[in-house]
Amino acid sequence: MLVSAKQQAMILPLKRPGEDPTAEAASGLQSAALQALRDNVQTQASQASAQVQDSATRQATQQVSAATAISDKVDEAFAKTRVQLQTVGSPAFAETSSAMAQFKDYMSKTPEQRLRDSILKEMGITEKEYAAMPPEKQLAVGEEIAQRMQDKSAMAQMEKDQQSEKNPAQSTVLATL
Q: What angle, rounded to 10 degrees, do the helices at 21-86 and 91-108 form?
């Protein structure tokens, strides 16, 4: 079979998809553009991450400074209070010693004296006012105090009796003590 040369020139051999130079160039440009886009996104992501870290670090630093300032103020207040308590002439010491004196005074009294003072207080009379009263009025107040003391002791005895009736075993144990 004879084939003419003219016909052979017209029949072009089929090209494979990878052999087309324009397609290869377009593919190369596309992959380069995709790579540049990926690099850009990674750069932006790392910058955003760095900004978030910086923001978190700044916020943590501010919180630590605030906590330190508060701690310093607490320490300062504690030191001032300690110095005031150690100083004998300070108002805090005077209040403490006054309360201590009142407590010691109260504890040095007998139960009857405490009861008498509480009754005077209920009546709205101070010890100084009682001492300043005329003798007749002191006698009347004294009788009132005696009556109230008897009433209170009778009430206490009734409560004690009721307790012993409720729990006789406990009263026998208490009696043996």
A: 60
Tell me the average pLDDT across 72-78: 86
pTM of the predicted structure, to 2 decimals? 0.36
Q: 172 vs 145, which has greater pLDDT?
A: 145
Tokens of 133: 């009263």
Q: What is residue 31's predicted lDDT score, i.e. its pLDDT?
A: 79
**Greatest C-alpha distance within the chain:** 165
Q: If DSSP states are collapsed to H, E and C, what string results for the chain? A: CCCCHHHHHHCCCCCCHHHCHHHHHHHHHHHHHHHHHHHHHHHHHHHHHHHHHHHHHHHHHHHHHHHHHHHHHHHHHHHHHHHHHHCCCCHHHHHHHHHHHHHHHHHHCCHHHHHHHHHHHHHCCCHHHHHHCCHHHHHHHHHHHHHHHHHHHHHHHHHHHHHHHHCHHHHHHHHHC
Q: How does pLDDT run across 85-107, given as a tens digit for each residue?
A: 777 555 555 566 788 888 888 88
